[in-house]
Amino acid sequence: MEKAEAVLEGVTGSHVIPGNEVEVLRNGEQIFPAMLEAIRSAERTVDLLTYVYWTGDIAQEIAHTLAEQARKGLRVRVILDWQGSWAMDNALADEMVEAGCLVERFRESDERPTRLHHRTHRKLLVCDESVAFTGGVGIAEEWEGDARNPEEWRETHFRVTGPAVRPMVSSFIEHWVECGHPSFSDDDHFPDLEPAGSTSLMVLRGSSGPFWHDIGLAMDVLLRGAQDTINLTTAYFAPGERMLGLLAEAVGRGVTVRVLLPGSHMDRRVVQLASADEYEQLLDAGVEVWHYEQTMLHAKIVTVDGHLCLFGSANVDERSMRHNEELAVVGFDTALCDTLDEHFEADLEVSEQIDLERWRDRPAWRKLVEKAVDPIEHWL
Questions:
Q1: In terms of CB atoms within 10 Å, which end of the chain has fewer, N or C?
Q2: 256 CB contacts (<8 Å, ≥6 apart)?
């Protein structure tokens, strides 16, 4: 474990921060009450950054709660990705603004055309600069409930307290400055954060560029250093040749590699089609590929050897590794990984393993469609 910490620090330039507590929140039934409680308990500041803000009861409740806190005199800042919040009820944004919330749309349509596909995909809530939430959840009715049926998506989110919250705050400020605001004000306290637990964390920001950013580099380190197991869950899987090679090489070292992806309830079929022709390469190398069949699977988690994990907003696709602004956290904690691996095993119980021979026999028309979308795979 110490070796992994040193390698990750050396490769990414980020530091491992001890003394944190991480609470795993499974599905909207746990995620949204925890987030709302943190917003309502805040005494000074609330910062929300999200890609998806759509419709539903939870979209209304969060907007109302943020507005209520702003009316009490708290500083409430909200950054919504311009593209990801297209379906949001504008009345909710208006309500927040009228209540005193500072609301920004990240990279509006009048930005430089070359940057229109560089979206912020970060999901972050920070209250009083001391408690943070990150993971995969969007603000929409799709995430409500407990993944009991296709209308309730399967998700994992994380509540973090301790010194690692500070670099998470900076991932919000980076975007706030890009939206035209100063980097700090008298409302910012940047408090000394006392240890809250025993978990060491490394916080990674991903920004758009020509090659993998720090999250991709961390993924490279984790997969390359795995010795026993890799359990990988992702909503969108378009990995590119380098990532495919890392997974295959791990199997060649004797590592059990299992990849869990959305199945028949996938919300973006084109992404599934784009990656489907790579299944054969993975299966032929000995990677286990599973399709989650209960509902749409939207979680983004990797665990390695039972003591290292990576979680946050990034999927295992070239869009997350290159084009999106992302936020991820590496955790060094056996108990945390045990919880995530338990959830992984439970998800496999409602999943179907892809068989290599059956996959090779899929219809010819489907193979043609998969080939047709290959040229745009890196942009999905």
A1: N
A2: 228, 229, 230, 288
Rounded CA-CA distance 125/354 in Å is: 37
Among 78, 91, 84, 90, smallest CA distance to 52 is for 84
Chain segment 163-189, per-residue pLDDT in tens: 999 999 999 999 999 999 999 999 999
DSSP code, position 191: -
**54-108 pLDDT, tens digit each:** 999 999 999 999 999 999 999 999 999 999 999 999 999 999 999 999 999 998 8
H-assigned helices in 228-326: 240-252, 269-285, 318
- What DSSP element (H or E) covers 217? helix 214-225
Structure tokens at 125: 């809530």
Cβ atoms of 121 and 324 closer than 8 Å: yes
Query: How far from chain centre, in Å, is Cα 330?
Result: 12
